[in-house]
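During the second year of the project, the team shifted from modelling isolated chains to modelling whole assemblies. The rationale, set out in the original proposal, was that interfaces cannot be judged from single-chain predictions alone. As a representative example for this report, we include one of the complexes processed in the last quarter. Its constituent sequences, exactly as entered into the pipeline, are reproduced here:
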Amino acid sequence: MESARARTLTHVEPAEVALQVALDALADPVRRSILRDLATHEDWSRACGTFDLPVTKATRSHHFAVLRSAGLIEQRDEGARRLNRLRRPEFDRAFPGLLAATIDRAD
Amino acid sequence: MESARARTLTHVEPAEVALQVALDALADPVRRSILRDLATHEDWSRACGTFDLPVTKATRSHHFAVLRSAGLIEQRDEGARRLNRLRRPEFDRAFPGLLAATIDRAD
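Output from the structure prediction step:
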């Protein structure tokens, strides 16, 4: 059964995202580090709590919400863990070359 | 003879620019419109005052300064006009694919 927490997760299709929203999401070093982490791990293998980020829990949640709103990640709850997937194929279709130019390189 | 105004123009090599600075510069719709304009005109053919921008003169100057600091444009004064060039080849070398993904497409 889907939890109340899972039902609150709103996702946006990359094709529906404005370039401005995509750039705002990518123009933050913590969010780029999350995306690089996801890019180098299997889909759904990383839970939000396992990322080593230099921010508070509230800020962490905000970063993940921004990435979701920009069509960059998909999330699903599995018990107490919130698992993540980089939406690489669909984001690349909507914004060709943008991830390659931003997270496939060092900062 | 170089004017005092021209001497105050500071340029930054794209190779010296951090990805964060490049993304901050590109994550603004007015600055992207300036870059698209430059991308479709000959080098040095566009003076700052000729851009049709929905901003004050001070904000306009700020946008051009940000673009210069991010290694995206080169400027030079010719009489009362400040001419511009998109630093496409050198920026593309420093950030492969980033301009293609941001200004070679619509917003």
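The domain at 4-103 of chain A is CATH 1.10.10.10 (Arc Repressor Mutant, subunit A). Chain A is about 45% helix and 15% strand.
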